[in-house]
């Protein structure tokens, strides 16, 4: 079937009109409805762009709600207790000396779960060939999670100085995972794992 010139140009025109109609119905992200006024426009994010201000009204609200204030005070006190406990515990635990390889475990015995104590005693029974001394420097809490049992799981980075048999000292960061369980006014360590951060 052969088309005449007129039929050919009509077919082309009809195709162009169909394509134009199809393209004009596609919504573009840059188009905004004309009915939306400036006052109706919403910010593109739900995150506040300015931090909340500490106003007199906020202070009054906090003073009127003693229960909320008590909870906040308890959380701050508990956080300070955990920091203090960890500093003391890590300082004693990482006071390793190859001449007395389990002495540091004995120093923290009353702060360890009995099964963890037994495991650490077995782990440090024989002195390490490449480490003469270990000494705790400092730590930073990377994450803290309170579990359903009220145990607290902490991920830390601690700086430990290792002294080799050649008396060369090197301070290296260690990743430490620790699980604390409440024990009266203090804590017990239920689980402990550490790894060199450089590995």
TrEMBL record:
Residues 34-68 are annotated as: Disordered. Residues 56-68 have a biased composition (Basic and acidic residues). The chain crosses the membrane at residues 6-23. Keywords: Membrane, Transmembrane, Transmembrane helix. This is Uncharacterized protein.
């Amino acid at each position: 079937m052969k088309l005449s010139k007129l039929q050919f140009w009509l077919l082309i025109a009809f195709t162009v009109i169909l394509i134009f109609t199809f393209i004009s119905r596609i919504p573009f992200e840059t188009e905004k409805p004309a009915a939306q006024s400036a006052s109706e426009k919403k910010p593109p994010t739900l995150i506040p762009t300015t931090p909340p201000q500490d106003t007199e009204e906020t202070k009054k609200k906090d003073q009127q709600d003693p229960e909320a204030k008590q909870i906040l005070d308890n959380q701050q006190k508990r956080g300070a207790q955990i920091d203090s406990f960890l500093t003391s515990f890590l300082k004693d635990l990482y006071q390793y000396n190859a001449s007395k390889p389990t002495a540091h475990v004995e120093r923290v015995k009353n702060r360890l779960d009995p099964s963890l104590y037994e495991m650490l005693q077995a782990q440090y029974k024989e002195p390490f060939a490449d480490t003469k001394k270990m000494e705790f420097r400092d730590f930073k809490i990377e994450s803290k999670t309170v579990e359903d049992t009220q145990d607290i799981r902490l991920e830390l980075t601690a700086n430990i100085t290792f002294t080799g048999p050649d008396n060369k000292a090197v301070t290296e960061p260690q990743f430490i995972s620790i699980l604390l369980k409440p024990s009266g006014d203090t804590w017990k360590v239920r689980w402990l794992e550490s790894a060199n951060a450089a590995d």
